[in-house]
From TrEMBL:
<dbReference type="InterPro" id="IPR035952">
    <property type="entry name" value="Rhomboid-like_sf"/>
</dbReference>
<feature type="transmembrane region" description="Helical">
    <location>
        <begin position="276"/>
        <end position="296"/>
    </location>
</feature>
<feature type="domain" description="Peptidase S54 rhomboid">
    <location>
        <begin position="129"/>
        <end position="266"/>
    </location>
</feature>
<feature type="transmembrane region" description="Helical">
    <location>
        <begin position="65"/>
        <end position="85"/>
    </location>
</feature>
<keyword id="KW-0812">Transmembrane</keyword>
<keyword id="KW-0378">Hydrolase</keyword>
<feature type="transmembrane region" description="Helical">
    <location>
        <begin position="147"/>
        <end position="165"/>
    </location>
</feature>
<keyword id="KW-1133">Transmembrane helix</keyword>
<dbReference type="InterPro" id="IPR050925">
    <property type="entry name" value="Rhomboid_protease_S54"/>
</dbReference>
<dbReference type="InterPro" id="IPR022764">
    <property type="entry name" value="Peptidase_S54_rhomboid_dom"/>
</dbReference>
<keyword id="KW-0645">Protease</keyword>
<dbReference type="GO" id="GO:0006508">
    <property type="term" value="P:proteolysis"/>
</dbReference>
<protein>
    <submittedName>
        <fullName>Rhomboid family intramembrane serine protease</fullName>
        <ecNumber>3.4.21.-</ecNumber>
    </submittedName>
</protein>
<feature type="transmembrane region" description="Helical">
    <location>
        <begin position="202"/>
        <end position="219"/>
    </location>
</feature>
<feature type="transmembrane region" description="Helical">
    <location>
        <begin position="252"/>
        <end position="269"/>
    </location>
</feature>
<dbReference type="GO" id="GO:0008233">
    <property type="term" value="F:peptidase activity"/>
</dbReference>
<feature type="transmembrane region" description="Helical">
    <location>
        <begin position="177"/>
        <end position="196"/>
    </location>
</feature>
Length: 305
């Protein structure tokens, strides 16, 4: 048989005659397998291989570039769902708000903590092993008819989360943003535990203050015009002072400090192959410091050796 008269077929579809070769591997491909390339056509396998070899774009802080603030949407959704849960079952607040140490009497009433208490009392809070309160409290807010703000508590926090969160998420990428948010929330709860363990607190404010600190650190690192940023921070710090008489300033300050530490690690880690490791290491160290501080405080409150 004359070789030139032989019928050539697609390597993926042997029953389909083909006369076009992949520009990369030179195998024959049919119209269904052709993928447009800079020059000619490529087969699906070569297209996938080429996509794997292309370096993904990153932000200045090492995160993947994202156009949709998905994590911010999810966080707002979780807060709103938790709030609906509070409205349906108000007991959720007592069960999951931040409380370092408290007592519940036989009458069901709540009492100030003391390390020795009658046998018909029982401890509640982190001192009773309820460590989850350190994070769950960051997703709860004041019921509509309680506290200074009522329903405005969640409304103001969610508006702030939307305005600041989507900016921070776009710069950090989703994973770094989640870590920042959770460590800021944890930092706020731990400072409450250290300074005011008997005060029940709740709200996303600690995490949002952490995002505010991140916004400032990132702007400085990127060389942005600091005039508007400084005005924003001045307002944030002013609210921190005002909140000392209205809400948990300890939670706000703890979140602010934790957020600043995390973002400093993000912003000033070396821009080479070590960057992710340094950033993760700094976050891990902060997590250990927070947990050890919380454990030491619980040991102090309970008189454990």
């Amino acid at each position: 048989m004359d070789p030139e008269s032989a019928v050539t077929t697609c390597y993926r579809h042997p029953a389909v005659e083909s006369h076009v070769r992949c520009a990369r591997c030179e195998r024959y491909i049919c119209p269904d397998c052709m993928r447009e390339a800079a020059v000619g056509h490529q087969c699906p396998e070569c297209v996938r291989e080429g996509a794997r070899s292309v370096r993904q774009a990153r932000t200045a802080f090492g995160g993947r570039i994202t156009a949709v603030p998905l994590v911010t949407y999810v966080l707002i959704g979780l807060n709103v769902l938790a709030y609906v849960g509070e409205l349906v079952r108000p007991a959720i607040v007592d069960r999951f708000e931040m409380l370092g140490a408290g007592l519940v009497g036989s009458d069901g009433g709540h009492y100030v903590w003391q390390d020795t208490y009658p046998s018909d009392f029982h401890a509640v809070g982190v001192v009773d092993g309820e460590w989850y309160r350190l994070l769950t409290s960051a997703f709860l807010h004041l019921p509509p008819t309680e506290g200074t703000f009522g329903i405005l508590h969640i409304v103001m926090n969610m508006v702030s989360l939307w305005n600041i969160g989507r900016v921070v998420e776009a710069q950090l990428g989703r994973l770094r943003y989640v870590v920042l948010y959770l460590l800021s929330a944890l930092g706020g709860s731990v400072l409450v535990l250290l300074i005011a363990p008997g005060d029940p607190t709740l709200g996303a404010s600690g995490a949002i203050f952490g995002l505010g600190a991140a916004y400032y650190v990132m702007a400085r690192r990127l060389g942005a015009d600091m005039a508007a940023v400084n005005r924003f921070m001045a307002g944030l710090l002013l609210w921190l002072l005002i909140s000392a008489g209205l809400t948990s300033w300890q939670g706000h300050l703890g979140g602010l400090l934790a957020g600043a530490v995390v973002t400093l690690a993000y912003a000033y880690a070396p821009r080479d192959s070590r960057r992710a490791l340094v950033q993760a290491g700094a976050c891990a160290v902060l997590l250990v410091v927070l947990l050890v501080s919380a454990w030491a405080k619980v040991a102090e409150l309970t008189g454990a050796q």
